Amino acid sequence: MGKIILTGDRPTGRLHVGHYVGSLKRRVELQNSGEFEKIFIMIADAQALTDNFDNPEKIRQNIIEVALDYLSCGLDPAKSTLFVQSQISELTELTFFYMNLVTVSRLQRNPTVKSEIQMRNFEASIPVGFFNYPISQAADITAFKADTVPVGDDQLPMIEQTREIVRKFNSIYDEVLVEPEALLPSNDACMRLPGTDGKAKMSKSLGNCIYLADTEKDVKTKIMSMYTDPTHIQISDPGHIEGNTVFTYLDAFSNQKHFEEYLPEYANLDELKAHYQRGGLGDVKIKKFLNNVIQEELSPIRARRAEFEKDIPAVYEILRQGSEVAREVAAQTLSEVKKAMQIDYFNDAALIASHAEKYKK
Ligand code: TRP
User: Fold this and answer.
1) Beta strand pairing call for 36-43 and 3-9
2) Helix, strand, coil % (nearest 5) of the chain?
3) Strand partners, 6
4) Using the 8-state DSSP alphabet, how is residue 322 labeled?
5) How high is the pLDDT of residue 88?
6) Which has the closest alpha carbon to 130: 205, 48, 60, 204?
7) Where are the alpha helices (DSSP H) in 186-228?
8) For residue 342, how many other CB atoms are within 10 A of its CB?
């Protein structure tokens, strides 16, 4: 059997550069590597509704934004199936059966759920749908028999939970499901890209994100006002690299070629860092370099987005068709699951015959 990818994002807003280095860029590389037989990229609207159930309009407005971000990054509907979670009703059916295999205390121990419950002030009363979302995520992954799930490390508890469900299902019923593995970003900076203000997480409410759809001018403004090292006051002062957002972004985005092109007086990032630490290198210079690097990465994405924006109905059509394909795959897995659970009564001639025999007068 060939290798299969499934991953996705909650459509709660436009995607930003954190999503890009954390996952999107890698997905496109994996897509174009030709190493995968099938690739499923899911817009997780049903999951987003588990903590936005009172604001369906927000989810509704952001499906197209995420789709445009996907396409503009280079996800290609000819190679990857792009689809919308809620349109695959088989996923909820799988969730329902998997719920039998998970205990409440196991869900309570899921570290991601735990911290999200705190963040959302759900401690007093947790909506059941939200509490259950790790199980629904197991359904997302297993419905497509995905073995590879490219995600950030915050999703590791979800993958672990999925693996437990798979093992339990396969041992109780039959070997139907595939145990997935997470594929994490290649470096630390990519895994945890901070906000432009240096805060640990990029978030819309903090206004510290660089979005893939931002204009060139907006990106530049955000970069030029980025958080650096508050103790680096004079250019001649020694500077710090740790916690310096500009350097974290350079770790995530820059490569050798960028130095040759935009900053040839330094051989590489290590030399630039060393100079900053010694003193004598100003913030404006490193910010301008970072701006060049990021603009180079984002400008083809922006240009592709502008093309796709010209035909929005076509983008919806891509999602509709992708959802149809995804639904067929999920339906196949669901029928295998039901058969393994022996709930295929009407297709089981032997069962019907044996009961006929039992009640023969
Ligand atoms: N939980 C993921 C996130 O918040 C989105 C998601 C839903 C997902 N189902 C998935 C990711 C299945 C990977 C696999 O970003």
Assistant:
1) parallel
2) 60, 5, 35
3) 40
4) H
5) 98
6) 48
7) 188-191, 216-224
8) 11
Q: How confident is the model at residue 231 (pLDDT cuts 50, 70, 90)?
A: very high
Rounded Cα gap, residues 48 and 94, in angstroms: 18
The first and second tokens of residue 303, run together, are 């240009």
Q: How far is CA 282 from the centre of its chain?
A: 35
Q: Is the CB of 10 under 6 A from ligand 1?
A: yes
Distance in angstroms (rounded) separating the CA atoms of residues 59 and 187: 31
Residue whose CB lies within 8 A of the most ligand 1 atoms, among 7, 69, 110, 112, for a mutation test? 7
pLDDT digits (tens, 9 = 90+) for 43-83: 999 999 999 999 999 999 999 999 999 999 999 999 999 99
Tell which residue, 3, 91, 1, has the closest CA to residue 42: 91
What residues are paired with 183 via a beta bridge?
150
The finding on whether 149 has its CB within 6 A of some atom of ligand 1 is yes
Q: Which of 98, 215, 219 is nearest to 161 (CA)?
A: 98
Residue from 93, 85, 91, 82 nearest 59 by CA: 85
How far apart, in whole angstroms, are the C-alpha atoms of residue 52 and residue 89?
19
> Which residue, judged by its Cα, is nearest atom 6 of ligand 1?
8
Measured from the Cβ of residue 328, the count of other Cβ atoms closer than 10 Å reads: 10
Residue identifier of the C-alpha nearest atom 5 of ligand 1:
9
What's the gap in Å between 202 CA and the centre of ligand 1?
Answer: 17
3-state secondary structure of 83: strand
Query: What is the spatial distance between Cα 143 and Cα 177, in angstroms, rounded to a whole number?
Result: 8
